[in-house]
């Protein structure tokens, strides 16, 4: 059974800092890994999707990496802004079960002005 | 392009009642997945539908059911509601759930059981 862990559970940084969020998973036979952000009371916004054959994906100030052999992914946020404050979730896609993702509990990020 | 639409946004029910939630996927998306989000359990997979067929199911009791219509819209039903069913119910759509396309989520339905 796939288990996804995100550390730390909460992170507070001053504006302008670069930061890294971590995601680890127990079963390396993944289909893909997707990073989301969730604002309070809202649904999930897709940030980046990394296919199992890829090592990283970039979008603007965000860069996500994937190391299947070690069961880890990182989300790097450059030059953080207060608007980046949200909960960040990683989700691992299951090759054997279409449409199913296993989620971590998230990292709640606060960027202070 | 319109995103995933979930209705209603908020619902208040009492124990023992039943409820139906609706999800309209992004146009062209045929896979719809449902998740339950609670503070204690996080996001948990309920089930996934494609072409009006349930392809996968999570570990939830039979009180949780769903269906998908020919236009890919999906409904989720919960019968005999319990206090523990209070949660944010999220649906996600993707092209077909199997190609490497991202899942897109709606804003959810917040269900409160009194």
What does this protein structure show overall?
The complex is a heterodimer of chains A (113) and B (114). Chain A is mainly beta. Helices cover 0% and strands 59% of the residues of chain A. Chain A is built from no helices and 11 strands. In chain A, strands 2, 4, 5, 9, 10 and 11 form a 6-stranded mixed beta sheet that branches. In chain A, strands 1-3-8-7-6 form a 5-stranded antiparallel beta sheet, with no helix packed on it. Chain A is globular. The model of chain A has no long low-confidence stretch (mean pLDDT 95). Chain B is mostly beta strands and 114 residues long. Helix content of chain B is 0%, strand content 53%. Chain B contains no helices and 11 strands. Chain B has strands spanning 5-7, 10-13, 19-24, 31-38, 42-50, 53-57, 64-68, 74-78, 87-94, 104-105, 109-113. In chain B, strands 2, 4, 5, 6, 9, 10 and 11 form a 7-stranded mixed beta sheet that branches. Chain B has a 4-stranded antiparallel beta sheet with strand order 1-3-8-7, with no helix packed on it. The model of chain B has no long low-confidence stretch (mean pLDDT 94). Classes of the chains: A mainly beta (113), B mainly beta (114). The interface between A and B is medium-sized, with 24 and 31 residues.
What does the secondary structure layout of this molecule look like, with pairings?
The complex is a heterodimer of chains A (113) and B (114).
Chain A: E1 4-7, E2 10-14, E3 19-25, E4 30-38, E5 44-51, E6 56-59, E7 62-67, E8 72-77, E9 86-94, E10 101-103, E11 107-112
Parallel strand pairs in A: 2-11
Antiparallel strand pairs in A: 1-3, 3-8, 4-5, 4-9, 6-7, 7-8, 9-10, 9-11
Chain B: E1 5-7, E2 10-13, E3 19-24, E4 31-38, E5 42-50, E6 53-57, E7 64-68, E8 74-78, E9 87-94, E10 104-105, E11 109-113
Parallel strand pairs in B: 2-11
Antiparallel strand pairs in B: 1-3, 3-8, 4-5, 4-9, 5-6, 7-8, 9-10, 9-11
């Amino acid at each position: 059974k796939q288990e996804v862990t995100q550390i730390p559970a909460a992170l507070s940084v001053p504006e302008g800092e670069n930061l890294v969020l971590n995601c680890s998973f127990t079963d390396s036979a993944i289909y893909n890994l997707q990073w989301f952000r969730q604002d309070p009371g809202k649904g999930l916004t897709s940030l980046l999707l990394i296919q199992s054959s890829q090592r990283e994906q970039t979008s603007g100030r965000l860069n996500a990496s994937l190391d299947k052999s070690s069961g880890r992914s990182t989300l790097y946020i450059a030059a953080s802004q207060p608007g980046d404050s949200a909960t960040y979730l990683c989700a691992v896609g299951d090759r054997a079960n279409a449409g199913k993702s296993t989620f971590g509990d998230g990292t709640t990020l606060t960027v202070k002005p | 392009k319109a995103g995933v639409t979930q209705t209603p946004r908020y619902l208040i029910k009492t124990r023992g009642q039943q409820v139906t939630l609706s999800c309209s996927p992004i146009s062209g998306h045929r896979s719809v997945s449902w998740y339950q989000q609670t503070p204690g359990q996080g996001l948990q997979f309920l089930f996934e539908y494609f072409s009006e067929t349930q392809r996968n199911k999570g570990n939830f009791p039979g009180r949780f059911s769903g269906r998908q219509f020919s236009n890919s819209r999906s409904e989720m039903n919960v019968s005999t509601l319990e206090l523990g069913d209070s949660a944010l119910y999220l649906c996600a759509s993707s092209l077909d759930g199997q190609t490497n396309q991202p899942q897109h989520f709606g804003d959810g339905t917040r269900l409160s059981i009194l």
